[in-house]
Amino acid sequence: MCSVRAHRQALLLVAALAFGACEHPHMPKVVAPPVVDAGTADAVVTPSFTCAQAPAPRVRRLSQREYLNVVEDLLGTQARQRAATLLPAEPNIAGFDNQDDALRVGSLMQGAFAVVAETLSREALPNAVCELGEARQACVDRFAMAFAHRAFGRAPTAAERAALTTLSDQADDTPTALRLVIEYVLQAPGTLYSTELGHVTPTLDPSLLTDNELANQIALLTTAARPDETLTTVASLGLLALPEHRQMQVERLLQTPRGRAQAQRLILGWLDMDDVATAPKNGDAFAAYSAEVATAMQAEIDAFVRAHSFGPDATLQALFTDTSQHIPAALFSIYGDELQMTEHGSVLSPVFRRGVLSLPAWLTYHAADQHSGPIERGLLVRRQLLCQQVPSPPPDLAVQIAAQTIDATDKARTTRQKYEQHRSEPRCAGCHTAFDAIGFGLEDMDGLGRHRTTENELPVDAQGMLLDTDVDGAFVGVAQLSEKLAHSRAVSDCFVQQFFRFAAGRPATDADQCVIADLQQAFEQHGNRIDSLFLAFVGHASFERRVRP
Amino acid sequence: MTPSSRLFTRRHLLKAAGLTLTTPMFLRRAFASEAEAQGPPALVLLMQTNGTNQKNFWPAPGTFDSPILRALLNDPRLAAQTTLIKGINYQAIKSPSGNEHDRGFHGLYSGFDSVLGPGGSFGGGISLDQRIANEVPSGAGSLRHIHCGVHAVNYKAINAGRISFSATGRMQQAPCELDIYRLYETVFGASKAAPPDPESAKRRLAQKRSILDSVADDLRLLENRLGPQERAKVQLHATAVRDFERRLTSALPPRAAACAKAQPAQRGVPSFGQGNEANAEILCRLFIEFIANTVACNMVGVLSFQFGRGGEHFHYDWLKIPGMPSDAHDFVAHQDQGDPEIERINTEIKKWYTSLIADLGERLLAFPSTDGRTALDNSLIVWGNELATGPHGMSDIPVVMLGGARGRMKTRGQLIDAGPQPHHRLGCTLLNIMGVRAAGFGGLAMCGPLQGVQIQEPN
Fold it and tell me: Which of B400, B406, B408 is nearest to B376 (CA)?
């Protein structure tokens, strides 16, 4: 570690001497890299990976979140907000918004990018681009190259430089020239895509990603944006070919606000969570639900996840077992007697609540609009947390199931009693037992995440059962389920699979499985620290190699 | 339930509608000037979910009328343009993923089995709308493709694949545009901008073309470095860029001037979001109006639209049907197995869809062309369904075709029942109508076209 630290400090010193100062907050000038403390570097290790597999070369479109971050870095927050209003919604695939399969540019999307480019070039032109006495052409060229470099995460190619020059030459004045540059760059493939192709004339198979490609992969993974100045500098020095340097950059970037947000996005995506406020709730069934309550739920889960996304204490187990520390006042009525008022504020009793699954936000989002949704909750645990595929019913049984619908408004039975009919049918029970039994174990929490012992004036039965897992057995309530899941290797292995989907922006293929096995091993070695996965991913040889199919 | 939920009744809509919901006179003039165009017909693919009531959908023998289709078939002008195709059965090729909702939703307009992906079942291959957009040139100044729908709901999706049936390839879900106002801006916005002086306009157009040329050049260079699979996504983008540039540079002043007035009858309706289902009815009406305007103005090559997501859970509160249960998916569609009360309610729901299709047909009939045809003669509306029946039945999927497809649809004004046919034949027939010679569709390369449907293939 000492030699790595010394190397890093020398690198930063060299970089600091090599570059000038920033002039404008949104101008893409290269600036002196901030000298950052990369932490204790405890996690900066290169585990003994055994897998030699590498994915195929590809080009990956930036997600809207990534694109908007690039826009913000280029033109500021207002430009980002404006662009966000002009882009159509794109699919969010099982929690993640960056899945390349769903990010194609058809007619409408192309039109939207063109409109964003035209609008922002008109509305968000930076002030004071040219320096006093600077010749027009020199100013425009300097701006164009720097702007494109920042947008592309690399220097413009010869063809791109020629395009920038051609466009700016068409303008009669400097502002128009700058606008045309912005308009092109904001819809250029260089901005919209990130390549993983390796060197143009590969001499090796597998080929190695270029320094810029490595920097861009790191930046997109950790900040959902293009490389910052420090990462760009490190890339330009060729140091990203070394796993430990990639890991140092990841460790640094994860501590930035965008890095924290990215780790948070990973966890919320793993939980398949979108905005709590979008959860439909029937007003008759849940009169206590309001916009204020939804906002408070969101704030609580955001704070909880943020606190569990980075550092030695931010482990998968902690996500499942810690108790929420920051309870917004609007949730006092949700928690009720579970809250104890102390001199330090309100403290949540851990008797019924453990971990992120016990937060009202998760329990509200993953519930039905009129009841607690035990089937949906159970399915989510199976699919998203255990990565188990639940088979579809055969056609004849599907028709039978379709005919056996359940009246959510029936007040004569508990939700569990209504849905237990699935298990009374032998052909249904085979599958439903696997997930119903999980969802039934969460019946101590209603559709707003309120603890309950009765429903419709009948006693609630929150006895659940885990089957076909490595932590099989009975449990009662969300707290006990969380304790079980916290100690499941299957759950931690599944988390790694979900991480891979998030990090790669695509589902894993068969060829990826041995990479995932290496990551799972590294995850375990590091006590299931969330940030260790980011480090292991970039430290793996597959991160820098591509093999042509 | 959200505080932002708004309820717009049909009365509100009609009050606010003005010209566009009655007889869009300005578009009559607009279409007349475009009638000579003899390219492929505009194709509209509509996807309904949860099947129908078979007994009340199909006409009784010897008749061309049914309780569900009455709004369409009781108007002689629309009935003459309507083709009902009975016997289309969903036919799996291997082992499709998901339940029947998934299979039909992804399969009907793609011919591929649904496949398992993260969070649900997805399309197993390119869908018809995307394929036609790729293979069939659209008219000058028009978009190749729009995929849109209404997702304002009170029910959370539990299956990521059911967001959109449009797919650019296996598991490549294409977005479903939900924002009606953004669509109007995209399709009609350019022609509504205040015209600058001619010299400035010319200069600005040249600048935009230069930018698009540069983008296209960049894509070409990128494409050259990619393998076949990766190349496809860049090619799709490149096609969209060329399409966009073509639209910019197409000089169609007569059409542009008239169509500049096309606008939604109602402003400010939230277009999507859970808890916003109260707006689903007005949104469906607005989208029907948009489809009519877009097709009549020849602004699109192929438009696909979905009434909700796969296996939709609309509650249909706006229909105010006596005895309506709390969930139409579970308690009406699934339960429609002979109970007269459920059958009555389901029939009322399905009649509402028919009213929308009839509305679309009437709008298109209102645009005469100089050759005596109408916009409906020159387009083809296909109204399909992911299921045949609510309880997941997959035989006799209700498929209605409306329009003459520029003379290419020869069998109109009748029910065609040539016995059971695989659903792949529907796609094969539509490809042939659009000028793509195909012996099969999706996963069945040699299924042939629909039996009993006569078409005039273009030269």
Answer: B406
